[in-house]
Amino acid sequence: MEILQANMLNIIREKCSSGWSLEVFGDHIIVNVLRKEDNFRPVFALVKQTITRCVKEHFPERNDDVLFEVRNGSWNCSFKIVKTLFGR
Questions:
Q1: For the packed helices 40-58 and 2-16, what is the interaxial angle rounded to 10 degrees?
Q2: Predicted pLDDT at 88
Q3: How far apart are CA 48 and CA 65, in angstroms?
Q4: pLDDT tens digits for range 19-31
Q5: What average pLDDT is seen over the chain?
Q6: What's the distance, Cα to Cα, between the start and end of the chain in Å?
Q7: What's this model's pTM, rounded to 2 decimal places?
Q8: What three-state secondary structure class fits 21?
C-alpha cells in the first residue's frame, strides 16, 4: 500500500494538484486546499472529481482501497476510491 500511495501522490502532485498541498498520514492521502474557501462543498466536490479521474486514469488496477482526506481551514471531508476487481 505504501508504494501505491507514494506513486499516487507523485502522479496527483504532477497532474492535478494546483493549489493543493499533499501528504500521506497513516493510510490516508491528505489534500490541503491552500486557498481558504467560505463554501467548502463545491471545492470538495471538485477535488474529489479531479482526484478520482486521475487515479482511475493512471492506476486502473488497484488491490487496495485508497483513502483521501480533504482539508480547508476548519473543514475536513474524506472519501474512498475502492479497489478494482481483477479478471472481470
A1: 110
A2: 46
A3: 15
A4: 899 999 988 999 9
A5: 88
A6: 22
A7: 0.88
A8: strand
Q: Grid coordinates standing for 56?
A: 482511475
C-alpha cell at 86: 481483477
Three cell numbers, residue 16: 492535478
Confidence of residue 1 (pLDDT cuts 50, 70, 90): low
- Residues 6 or more apart whose CB falls under 8 angstroms from that of 85 comprise none
Separation of alpha carbons 84 and 88, rounded Å? 10
User: What does the pLDDT look like over 2-15, one tens digit per residue?
Assistant: 778 888 989 998 98
Partners of 20 in beta bridges: 33
C-alpha cell at 25: 498520514
d(C-alpha 85, C-alpha 29), whole Å = 22
Q: How far apart are CA 29 and CA 79, in angstroms?
A: 10
